[in-house]
Amino acid sequence: MLSAIIKFCVREPWLVVLLTIGVSIYGWFSYRAVPIDAIPNVGENQVIVLTPWPGRSPKDIEDQITYPLSVSLLAVPGAESVRGKSLFGYSFVQVTFKDNVDFYWARSRVSEQLGTAGSALPEGVIPQLGPDATGLGQIFYYVLVPPAEGMNLAELRSLQDFVVKYDLQAVDGVSEVASIGGYVRQYQIEVDPDRLRFHGVTLDSVAAAIRSSNLDVGAKTVESSGMEFIVRGKGFLGSDGGTAKAIADIEDAVIMQRDGVPVRIKDIGQVQLGPDFRRGALDYNGAEAVGGVVVMRYGENPRAVIDRVKQKIAQIEPSLDGVTIKGVYDRTGLIDETVATLTTALRDEILITAVVILLFLLHVRSSFIVAVTLPVAVLLSFIVMNLVGVGANIMSLAGIAIAIGTMVDMAIIVSENIYQHLAQWESSKAEGANRLSRADVIYNATGEVAPAVVTAVTTTIVSFLPVFFLTGRDYRLFAPLAMTKTFAIAAALVAAITIVPALCRLILRSANFGRTTRWMTALAGAGLLGATSVFVWGHNVVERWEIGLPLVTTVASMIGFWLGWMLATERVRGVDESFVARAVIGAYRPTLSLLLRHKLAFLTLPAMIVVLGLGGWFGLPTVLRPLERVAERLGMQPNELPLYVDAKHT
Q: Is 389 a member of any domain?
């Protein structure tokens, strides 16, 4: 099977190149589609039930709400635990499910159970599900900045609650927008106890009168002159005006009547517009402010949701009468830094690999072949991540970054072996002693090392199997790293045994160009690299190293000229013909000879490393205790030696 794949790739290199381009494009779209967050979600699979009961103590909340709900929710299928928390005016019940239970299936089961549990709660108390989000759902914080002419906190909070909040909640991927800070405006009635006593009115009757007066009444229709008129009784407070009309309607609400004389709200107290009771505030740069928190829906892409929220903010800001929305926390920065972990490692590894291969082989095409396999393998990894459902975060991307060193090794092994065989083939062909075709040489060279590469990759993958047997929070934390590292190594293996032989068949050959073509290629390389330094990356180098752009362009053009000249004049030759390889071999041979002549002396170094490693794990006193006992039997007391005790306890 492996030989057939290698043979096909060598025989049909252009088809392999086209397939590689298509897979790379699909990998780029998969990279854009995979949810990218800063940190992995290690929270439990849980559903929160929130039940408000204003003004009640935690003891009443616990006895009448939290306990009945907790007992009822224990019957939810798939629930592992139910935990309750009682606060002043609020009850929180957390139902934790098994990891394999679907998030929205769990919410639907809890919602069904609440229908039964609601009958055991006090009248008027309605439990509600928390937002369909996780502990990492808070992705964007913002504050409302008032205009220059000013706006008080109550007006800002009303604008947040009735305009901004609903607009942002309509954004795709947003589960909830929570308002913070400011004052929630409410209609308040300050009753006079003396007037209540004089009129013989109770507070319950006052509340009942206001509740009954804020009600529309529907009736039938009246038919007149061939037209039908709808009859209804208008009773909503302030329905025909603003807050002043609502206050006047509340004042005129009738509580009772005595001897045909009505007793109104204004007869027993004063109606006003005031702030609701609050237990917290939002501080921004030392002053109170009004803002909100955007909570992302479960399973969404944080970066995409934040982008959509910012677009919505830009749309609604012109209609806010001078109020601007300023973001104070944006997870995009953390996400970009997380992605930069991978891109930086990938860029550095490509550059280092290309330079090392160029120094050892003095062959630009060989460096290009190995460098191409790295981004292709990473894109292949994102395809598998998208299909399997593994999100991108600092742990999963770190798995790919860690695997890059191993990924490049496989491509180097295959390409180097092909290079060496082609060098021998070209030299023997020049002498007329080799009748093999170029494709046969590449196929034989790849097949020579492919089984060893597959074995090495399989061993590495198997070493990560214990990670997949973890459970709970440990599994959610470390499994993405093990998965992506496995995906990356497997993708690099596929690239090494398919793409590398095909590219070697196409471009790994000695250059036989004339002098004019060589100069044209060198000048083209100088112009291309110089132009990119001016328009693409040169300004970054100027800002980082504080050097002039002309100098950067000149150096880039010289490097481009040299690469172009190398590309047009290089030839496939043995590795031992490189001056770098000869220098390494010249330094390695005498060093190896010295180590072999003094084997016992140099074996003490790894033995000491093992002892120190065991000491770091178990402690040096524990490791050295058997040796100390042997020394004591021989009449020696090691602990009495100067500095010995301090040394073994450091």
A: yes
Q: How far apart are CA 43 and CA 347, in angstroms?
A: 33
- By CB atoms closer than 10 A (0-12, 13-18, 19+), residue 431 is exposed
pLDDT digits (tens, 9 = 90+) for 438-457: 888 888 888 888 888 888 88
Please check whether residues 143 and 120 belong to one and the same domain.
no
Tell the residue number behind the tokens 């109104």, with chain if given: 264
Judge if 385 and 361 occupy the same domain: yes
> Among 545, 179, 511, 139, which residue's Cα sits nearest to residue 334?
139
Hey, how many other C-beta atoms are within 10 angstroms of the C-beta on 202? 10
Same domain, 223 and 171: no
Three-state helix/strand/coil letters over 265-323 = HHHHEEEEEEECCCCCCEEECCEEEEEEEEEECCCCCHHHHHHHHHHHHHHHHHHCCCC
Q: Which domain holds residue 622?
A: 598-648
CA distances from 477 to 39, 40, 145, 480 (A): 9, 7, 39, 7
Q: In what order do the strands lie in the sheet with 90-97?
A: 79-87, 90-97, 45-52, 128-129
Give yes or no: residues 62 and 202 share one domain: no
In angstroms, the Cα distances linking 587 to 132, 226, 582, 623 are: 64, 111, 9, 38
Split into its structural domains, the chain has a count of 5
Q: Are residues 151 and 194 in the same domain?
A: no
Q: Which of 17-21, 206-210, 567-571 has the lowest mean pLDDT?
A: 567-571
pTM above 0.85, yes or no: no
**Residue 153 and residue 293 in one domain:** yes
Decide if 520 is inside a domain: no
Given a cut of 70, whether residue 571 has pLDDT beyond it is no
